[in-house]
Amino acid sequence: MRWVVTSITLLKPIKYGSVRRNELQSKIAPGSVKKWMNDPASYEPLAAGAGANTDATPRNTLLLRDVAYVIEAYPLIYNRGADNTPQKYISMLQRRAEKGQCYQQPALGCREFAAHFEPAAAAEPTQPVTEDLGRMLYDIVFRPDANRPVFFSARLQDGIMDTRPETVLQDPSIREELLGCSYRR
After folding, report:
1. Rounded CA separation 126/182 (Å)
2. Residues 68, 115: Cα–Cα separation, whole Å
3. Where on the phi/psi map is residue 178: left (φ > 0), alpha (ψ -120 to 50), or beta?
4. Residue-level pLDDT at 43
């Protein structure tokens, strides 16, 4: 089973932000930590700045701030049976969303940008934005030899991004491979 997102509706104006950070390339060995705990004088700090003689790589992230969306999707069932129906997964999602529960915390792009979710309120106003957003990651085709990203040309039309596979994935072979792909198959 997988969820197929069919549209994303923009509820708040688009606002951008920027985050700069330094990513370390190495890891501290557990043995070093134990040594430092037993002998604090032997502690050697790891330089995390982006200057010379450091182990860090500077990164800049352009991100969206203060976002709100309505995401519409349907469950695509691979192994249908008496107890494995779309309604089962829709009911499960509704119950979990009402309680704020999830199997894995959703994120918007990176795991450090956790997403809060709840059932959509009735008739929330849509932002009247029409804009080409450029290429966006649709999904990843998982293969035993190598994973392959699939991109699409994202566009907001009156605040709604159409993400139906038959609309944004023009090549039928890519669409079929992507929708047939499941990490559990």
Report:
1. 33
2. 10
3. alpha
4. 85
Q: How confident is the model at residue 56 (pLDDT cuts 50, 70, 90)?
A: confident
Q: How far is CA 18 from CA 61, 103, 114, 142, 172, in A?
A: 6, 30, 17, 31, 37
Sheet holding 2-10, edge to edge: 69-76, 2-10, 160-162, 148-157, 131-141
Residue 168 DSSP SS3: helix
Structural contact between residues 30 and 91, judged by C-beta atoms closer than 8 angstroms: no
**Using CA atoms, how far apart are residues 137 and 147, in angstroms rounded to an integer?**
13
DSSP 47-95: P-SSSTT-SEEEEEEEEE-S--EEEEEEEE-SS-BTTB-HHHHHHHHHH
pTM passes above 0.85: no
